[in-house]
Amino acid sequence: MKIVNFYVKTQAFNSDNRVLKELESISKKVDKIRIFLSSNDIVDCNKYPYDIVKIKLIGGSAPKNILLRLLGALQFTVICTFLSYKMKKRSNITAWICDPILFPLVYCASFIGMKTVWDHHELPPEWTLKSRFTKFLFRKTYKKATFLVHANFERMVYLEKKINVLANDYLILKNIPTKKSILDEMKCSQSIDWLNGRKFVYLQNSLIENRNGVEIARAIIDSGYVIVHAGNSVDTNYLNMLGDNYIKKCLLLGSLGLDSINYLLSCCEFTVISYKSNSLNQMYCEPNRIYQAMARNTFIIAGNNPTIVDILKGYPNKILLPDDGSEYKSVLNAISLYSSDSKASYEYNDFWENYDVDFERLLSND
User: Largest CB tally within 10 Å, which of 1, 137, 234, 287?
Assistant: First the structure.
């Protein structure tokens, strides 16, 4: 009997599309999934076809405070190791552990005889590699893990150079869409009423400083468009820098389903994707919304982060900025170059289902 213990600490499990896609793919290859979950949202266990063990952590699942994050990771490790150690036939269980900060749990799961898949959704916090002690433990754990999963090749190369260790085996698992997720579409009535025929630009989780929200919004509105924004990444204090005349031209819709996002991507003039290059996770970003936009053949204006440049290679309907999107004038100039008449046809074919054979390899009994 194939069993996966899936350990995840996330801000919002119900809307964590990467985690949900992973679980669906794993479920096709194994007999049973147990989820050890810490999440800040309300999760209805009856909604999912998995055994779910909820774990409440000090400070919540994704605190910004470094000390609380460390304490939470250690608390999660102790609880999960204890619960896992009590299980029989541990050698038949694969421990799939999400988050680089959970390296103590990866080490403990390996130590008690489980096959381990260490899933790096992002790069580890810088403090884990600055301390000699935590870097030593991180390196040992990286060597000990059966498989490493990384969100893109650039992050893996950077991390392995930093710690001077190569993975035993690895998989690059990009956050690309499923075939079904790009087909569903539902009209967003709230946007239709508000727009009243005006041309708009679609933004998603962008109105924060780390995504150059103010510079981008100002350039869009100064170019004669209004903004429809989806997602909860909105810093109100930061957004107020725009002033009321700009803010009234922004419709903030909050979290939306993929069907509504698809509708907005199909109707908008273009979308802008920008990550300020002030951290390695930002520089080597792997935004799923860029794939969703490509799948809907939406025109994209994007910053020059190396991973974004690589993703958009071969995509015809784009303008790449000369910077990361933090300069108002470069965004304004890029928008002036946009023409809806120049949009080329494009067939997207990079889907999550292509990873099925990789999940088979990761979860085999060999």
Answer: 287
pLDDT digits (tens, 9 = 90+) for 244-271: 999 999 999 988 889 999 999 999 999 9
Short-list 147, 113, 172, CA closest to 363: 147
- The Cα 252–Cα 232 span in angstroms is 9
CA angle at 348 for the pair 189 and 360, rounded to the nearest 5°: 105
Domain 179-342 is found in CATH 3.40.50.150: no
Cα torsion angle, 263, 268, 273, 274, sign: negative
Q: What is the mean pLDDT of residues 162-184?
A: 94
Indicate the domain borders of the chain.
Answer: 3-176+353-362, 179-342
**Contact indicator for 20, 48 with CB cutoff of 8 Å:** no
Question: Are 260 and 281 a contacting pair, CB within 8 Å?
Answer: no
pLDDT for the residue 59 = 85
For 354, the token pair is: 């292509």
pTM over the 0.85 mark:
yes
Mean pLDDT of 56-65: 85
Closest CA to 52 of 74, 28, 19, 78: 19
SS (H, E, C) the chain: CCEEEEEEEECCHHHCHHHHHHHHHHHCCCCEEEEEEEECCCCCHHHCCCEEEECCCCCCCCCCCHHHHHHHHHHHHHHHHHHHHCCCCHHHEEEEEECHHHHHHHHHHHHCCCEEEEEECCCCCHHHHHCHHHHHHHHHHHHHCCEEEECCHHHHHHHHHHHCCCCCCEEECCCCCCHHHHHCCCCCHHHHHHHCCCCEEEEECCECHHHCHHHHHHHHHHCCCEEEEECCCECHHHHHHHCHHHHCCEEECCCCCHHHHHHHHHHCCCEEECCCCCCHHHHCCCCHHHHHHHHCCCCEEECCCHHHHHHCCCCCCEEECCCCCCCHHHHHHHHHHCCHHHCCCCCCCCCHHHHHHHHHHHCCCC
**CATH T-level topology, domain 3-176+353-362:** Rossmann fold (3.40.50)
Structural contact between residues 137 and 105, judged by C-beta atoms closer than 8 angstroms = no
